[in-house]
TrEMBL record:
Protein residues bound to S-adenosyl-L-methionine: C132, A133, A134, P135, G136, G137, K138, D155, D188, D206
Major subcellular location class: mitochondrion
One Pfam family in the UniProt entry: Methyltr_RsmB-F
InterPro entries documented for this protein: MeTrfase_RsmB-F_NOP2_cat, MeTrfase_RsmB-F_NOP2_dom, RCMT, SAM-dependent_MTases_sf
GO biological process: one example: rRNA methylation
Name of the protein this chain belongs to: 5-cytosine rRNA methyltransferase NSUN4
CC terms in the record's Gene Ontology section: mitochondrial large ribosomal subunit
GO molecular function, one term: RNA methyltransferase activity
Keyword field: Methyltransferase, Mitochondrion, RNA-binding, rRNA processing, S-adenosyl-L-methionine, Transferase, Transit peptide
Protein encoded by which gene: NSUN4
Organism: Odocoileus virginianus
Sequence ranges assigned to domain SAM-dependent MTase RsmB/NOP-type in this UniProt record: 14-334
Lineage start: Eukaryota, Metazoa, Chordata, Craniata, Vertebrata
Gene3D superfamilies assigned: 6.20.240.40, Vaccinia Virus protein VP39
Record's keyword annotation contains Transit peptide: yes
Subcellular compartments: Mitochondrion
């Protein structure tokens, strides 16, 4: 009922897509023999949606009336390769295998989950915080960029950080984990601003949410159970606190991407606006939302985007491209 009001005529299509089989992307493991893996995926008729989009990006006309976004805002995080099947193709990828180096050759994930990492726009030498890192797909993608001078990967749940450790062990060589100084912790993310304020160049805040697609298919521990009603109602408050902590942990001039896999604007735009107000009122810190219209245009051949977000972008499930939901919003801490 809530989503039929929020999405109107789009809701029946979103609903049937959520109830249908999800589409995946194969994130190539650059630490394995990546070129050989890419060739194998191309033989399956899959395409690298990231580099295809960047390669085919249309240059802005020089006399364009709209100011082109600054390079820092449109630059995608580099060195990421993720293969998907084309729209309408419901083929499945075979399970990943271990290559000659003993590492898994690719990681299967909802391809829309890569968009927050791409939007973060990592630069070589960045110090990076992944505040709610488990189960580890986005953390792995951050490492694949080759940009992290330090990477702090945190998740409150120790069982979930165990899954994260397994992903790192299966995909990332030990020397890379050491060289990138990957630090895995299980702290309360809400306190990160007090623990390490003004520290990071880039922060990803991929918060706990109602995980809408997962919740439709899994009865066990479902957040929509009556026994978890209070917890569900408190989610936006927790999300605001986590985003505020992520912004406080960012250096002035640094960037934060907030993301969820929920359709709810109460967990998406409202949280972004709430955290920005909180930082302004309590800390006199100014935060600016970055316009991601260019980013949406870049990847609109792969994903369906909701056209009416107040801030940020939302990938909505569609039977032709059944990725998402995935909301993401990029912010710059100004002061």
């Amino acid at each position: 009922m809530t989503y039929s009001v929020q999405f109107g005529d789009l809701w029946p299509s979103i609903r049937v897509s959520l109830l249908s089989e999800q589409k995946y992307g194969a994130l190539v493991n650059n630490f394995a023999s990546g070129d050989h893996v890419s060739a194998e995926l191309e033989q399956l008729k899959a395409r690298d949606f990231v580099n295809e989009a960047i390669f085919h990006r249309e240059p802005e006309p020089e006399n364009s009336q709209t100011a082109a976004p600054s390079p820092a805002s449109w630059a995608c995080s580099p060195n990421l390769r993720c293969f998907t099947f084309t729209r309408g193709d419901v083929s499945r990828f075979p399970p990943a295998r271990r290559g000659s180096l003993g590492l898994m050759d690719y990681y299967l994930m909802d391809a829309a989950s890569l968009l927050p990492v791409l939007a973060l726009g990592l630069q070589p030498g960045d110090t990076v915080l992944d505040l709610c890192a488990a189960p580890g797909g986005k953390t792995l993608a951050l490492l694949q960029t080759g940009c992290c001078r330090n990477l702090a990967a945190n998740d409150l749940s120790t069982s979930r950080t165990s899954r994260l450790q397994r992903v790192l062990h299966n995909y990332v060589p030990q020397d890379v984990r050491d060289k990138n100084r990957v630090r895995v912790t299980s702290w309360d993310g809400r306190k990160w601003g007090e623990l390490e304020g003004d520290t990071y160049d880039r922060v990803l805040v991929d918060v706990p949410c109602t995980t809408d697609r997962h919740s439709l298919h899994e009865e066990e521990n479902n957040i929509f159970q009556r026994s978890r009603k209070k917890e569900r109602q408190m989610l936006p408050m927790l999300q605001v606190q986590l985003l505020a902590a992520g912004l406080l942990a960012t250096k002035p001039g640094g960037h934060v991407v907030y993301s969820t896999c929920s359709l709810s604007h109460l967990q998406n735009e409202y949280v972004v606006q709430g955290a920005i107000e909180l930082l302004d009122n309590q800390y006199s810190i100014k935060v600016q939302v970055e316009d991601l219209t260019h980013f949406r245009k870049l990847f609109m051949n792969t994903f369906y985007f909701f056209p009416s977000c107040q801030v940020g972008e939302l990938v909505i499930p569609n039977l032709m491209a059944n990725f998402g939901p995935m909301y993401f919003c990029k912010m710059c801490r100004m002061t």
